[in-house]
Request: fold
Amino acid sequence: MAPAKRSREKTDSAAGGPPPIRRRWRDYKTAAGRSPVEGFIDKLSDSDAAAVLAGMEEVRDRGLRAARHLDGDIWEVRVDGDRVIYRILLAEEGSRGQILLALDGFNKKTQKTPPATIELAKRRLADWRRRGEQLSRVVDEEVKHQAATFSSVVVVSSLVTLIPSLNFTPSSTSVTSS
Reply:
C-alpha cells in the first residue's frame, strides 16, 4: 500500500505585531511537469521524509534565517535523517519572498555542496523565472484581448439600446428620431 501524500503546507500563526509573511513551498517543475524534489522526497523512508518536511516547515515558519546561504539566490535546508544527511536547495521568490521554491534534493555525501548541484539549482531557477515571464506575457495579452472584447460588447450594447429610439428603415438612407 502506497504511503499517503505528505503535505508541506500549514497555516502560519503569529501572536500580535505585524502580520507575518505567509510563506509557502512550491516545487520547481520541469517543462514536462516533473517535480524533482517531490520525486526525491517520495523515494525516502517515511521517517527521513518526515525529517526533510520538518526542516522545510522550519524554513517556511522562520524564513531564510533557518537555512544556509550557498550562492546568489540559492539557499539550502539542512536535515539529518536516519544515518544520512539531506539537503533541499531553494530560492525565495515573489515580491515579498513568500514563495520558497524547492529546486533540488539530494543526500549529502561530501563536506561541501557540490558545485554542479548548485549550478543545477541556478539553471532551474532561471528556467522557472523565464517560464514565469513567458506566462505573464501570455496572461497580459489575454487580459488585453478580454478588455478589447469587453469594450466592443459595451459599444454594441449601447448601440442596441439606442436603436429602438431611432426610426430606421433599410430602404432609406436616412435615420430619423422618433
User: Anything to note?
Assistant: The first helix runs from residue 36 to 42. The radius of gyration is 27 Å. The CA atoms of residues 49 and 97 lie 25 Å apart.
